[in-house]
Amino acid sequence: MRLKVVVISAVLLSLAACQTTGGNTPTQSAADGESAISTEPAPRLEVDVSPAAVLTDGLGREIVLDRLPERVVIAGRAAQLILHAAFFFDEADARVVAMEQRTQRNASMMPLVDSGFAEVIQLERDASTEAIAVADPDVVLLKSYLADSVGAPLEALGLTTVYLDLETPEQFFRDARILGTLFGDPERADQVLAFYQERLDRVSETVATVPAEERPRVLLLQYTDQGGEVAVNVPPSAWLQTMLVELAGGEPLWLDAAGSGWTVVDLEQVAAWDPDYVFVVYYAGDPAVATEALRSDSSWAALRAVREGRLLGFPGDFVSWDQPDPRWILGLEWLANQLLPDGSFSFDVQAEMRAFYRELYGLDETAFKNDVLPLLNGDYEP
Fold first, then answer.
1. What DSSP designation does 155 have?
2. 8 A C-beta contact, residue 243 and residue 237
3. For the segment 69-95, what is each residue's pLDDT rounded down to a tens digit?
4. pLDDT by residue (tens digit) across 139-181?
5. What is the mean pLDDT of residues 338-349?
C-alpha cells in the first residue's frame, strides 16, 4: 500500500435508449404519432470510493490508505516502545511482519504477546532502508524524530511511513487512536484508553486534595556507570519523567538545570537542592544496583533524603516504568503512592501489574506469574 491521493473519475452515462427502428431513428408515439425520446435521467452508477483509513500522524500529515495495511513493519530507535503499544491490538499478531527489537534489560515481551513471533522478520539494529524494504511493508511505523534519517529514504522508495511519538500522555492517547485506525479496531483503542483514563483520574483527584505548598520536593535521576564512570543525570523539563513527577503530586527541583537531553549534575548541586525524595532510574538493570552504590557512598549517605530512607529505585520489569512505554501508567501510580500523604492513594503493585498485562495484552495468570512477575524490580511494597 502506498500513500495516495484518491481521484474520483466521473462516470458518464448515456440517456436511456429508446426503442428504435432501423439505425437510430426513434419510433413514433402510439398515442400522438410524434417522436418520443425519454427525458428521464439515467440512474447513476454507485461506486464506493471511500478510503479504508484516514489518519493524521505524529508529524501532522494526513495519510489516506485505500486498504488497511496487511504488512506492518516497526523499526528504528525506540521501536520496542511502539511495539508494546501496537500489541494492544489483536490484529497486530497477524499484521506485524517485521520488527526491530531493542531490548532494554536483555528480555523481550514480544514472544509472550505475539503468537507468530517465530515467523516475524527480526531486523538488525539500525536496519538499513534496503532491509526494511525487503519485508515488503504496506506501512512502516517510526518515531517522529526519525523522519529525516530513516523515513525519508523509505518514502523515496514509495513506501508509506506513519510517525508516532508516545512521548507524553497526550501523545500516547493520540497515537493509540492512530494505531486503532491502522489496525481497523478503534473500539479497542477506546477500551485501552479507558484503562489509562481511569487511573489518571484517580491520581489527579487525589493530588488535587494536597495544597501546593505541601507537595514534596523531588529529584529524579538516571544513574549511569558505563566504563566504570558513575554519573547522575536529570531529564529535560518537557520529558515524560518530569511530567510523571508533576502528575503524581511532586515538585521537580531540577528544571533550571535541565537541558535538551539527560544532563549530568554533581553531588554539590544535589545537596543544594536538598530534595525530600530522590528517585533513581537505572536502565541497564535492577535499580538496586544503583541505589546501593549511592547509599554506600559516604557523601550521598549524608543527604537528608538518603538518611530518611527516601532514596528509591524506580521500578520496572521488561523496561523501566519511567519512560514513554505503555508502562508509564504503572510508574505514575507508583510515584503517587510514594509522594501523596500516607493512606490517601493505595497502590498494590502486583494487582496493578496483573491488571495491566491481563487487560492490555490478554496474558493469563500462569504467563504473568512465570514470565512477568519474576522481572519486577525496584523499590515497591510487595
1. H
2. no
3. 999 999 999 999 999 999 999 999 999
4. 999 999 999 999 999 999 999 999 999 999 999 999 999 999 9
5. 91
Q: Which of 66, 88, 116, 80 is nearest to 180 (CA)?
A: 88
Which triple of cell numbers denotes residue 71?
504488512
- For cell 515467523, name the residue: 119
The C-alpha cell that represents 14 in the structure block: 448515456
- Sequence-distant (6+) residues with CB within 8 A of 362 are 90, 113
Domain covering 54-199, topology: Rossmann fold (3.40.50)
Tell me the CATH architecture of domain 211-375: 3-Layer(aba) Sandwich (3.40)
- CA 294 to CA 311: how far, in whole Å? 9
Find the length of the chain.
382
**Amino acid of residue 314:** F
CA distances to 25, 52, 160, 232 from 66, rounded to whole Å, are 45, 5, 12, 49
Alpha-carbon span 53 to 63, nearest angstrom = 8
Closest CA to 353 of 380, 345, 249, 344: 380
Between CA 276 and CA 215 the distance in angstroms is 10
Cell numbers for 176: 493509540
Burial readout 321-333 (b: 16 or more C-beta within 10 A, e: otherwise): bbbbbbbbbbbbb
Q: How far is CA 263 from CA 221, 237, 252, 303, in A?
A: 9, 11, 14, 21
Q: Give residue 11's pLDDT.
A: 34
Residue 381 has pLDDT above 80, yes or no: no
Every domain of the chain with CATH number 3.40.50.1980 lies at 54-199, 211-375
Question: How many alpha carbons lie under 13 Å from residue 240 in its C-beta half-sphere?
Answer: 20
SS3 376: coil
Q: How far apart are CA 205 and CA 294, in angstroms?
A: 34
Q: What is the Cα–Cα distance from 239 to 247, expressed in whole angstroms?
A: 12
pLDDT of residue 343: 82
Tell me, what's the pLDDT at 50? Answer: 60
Cell numbers at 223, concatenated = 544513574
The pLDDT of residue 52? 87
Residue 12 identity (one-letter amino acid): L
Average pLDDT score over the chain: 89
